[in-house]
């Protein structure tokens, strides 16, 4: 019996230095029946030319006018012929059995999605593909309740988390059911997309022993670092949409606590750089009526300041100290 085809979608932009390693990592997968779809987003370096050297019967290379990663992934989906879809960011890696084990896990469970742990790294020097010390069992696990899974992930248990894009393996039929990526959301577009996918599924299957190695560009929050106001506004929109999706699926549990946590953390991390947007998020948090704790902001001195004078003062001090050091 032939293995189901898996489409591996890789959006790229000025990524020549990462592309060879990404393709090599895919080729080392123990699962054989795959197609690679590389979508170049109008790179200005030699990424596209390099990608073309990999073109074959099992590797498609496409190019689009500069339109962003979400549009690139949608173009990949349009050209994908696989039963399952694996998204992969070009600077990340998958453990060699990741796809094989997740395909096996979804056998006879094709209305579910598969997920695995992810391991963060900042550069190749600290990357160890054999590192399996991570434990994310408090938010990555098997569940027959998609809404409860997301509520827990968003902070219903008091500890908000996220699951990086590459950790998932998704039946293409589920994506066709909910639609593609929203190209008007630039920050947390993956959070919004997978909220729809997970809620449309019949459950989540956690696959142990395989990993997604995810490169972090900084230890700071994306909300703290972003210099694009539209990105920040879109991230707030993503929370709004996730809240609406959950309300359509459930009305119980810790939904309000989870979304209140999302809004409060957003308000904290965008302050004081984007005071107006932070204020909007804080108003949304207050309107929900659930009281949650602000996130940890730093070491003992910062945390003392937060509890003694409030998170705004703590954020102001941290923000201006960072500004002076740059």
Automatic annotation (TrEMBL):
The keyword Ligase does not apply. It comes from the Bacteria. InterPro entries: Glyco_trans_2-like (IPR001173), Nucleotide-diphossugar_trans (IPR029044). Residues 7-128 form the Glycosyltransferase 2-like domain. Keywords: Transferase. CDD domains: Glyco_tranf_GTA_type (cd00761). It holds the Pfam family Glycos_transf_2. Coiled coil: none annotated. GO terms for molecular function: hexosyltransferase activity. This is Glycosyl transferase family 2. It comes from Pontibacter ummariensis.
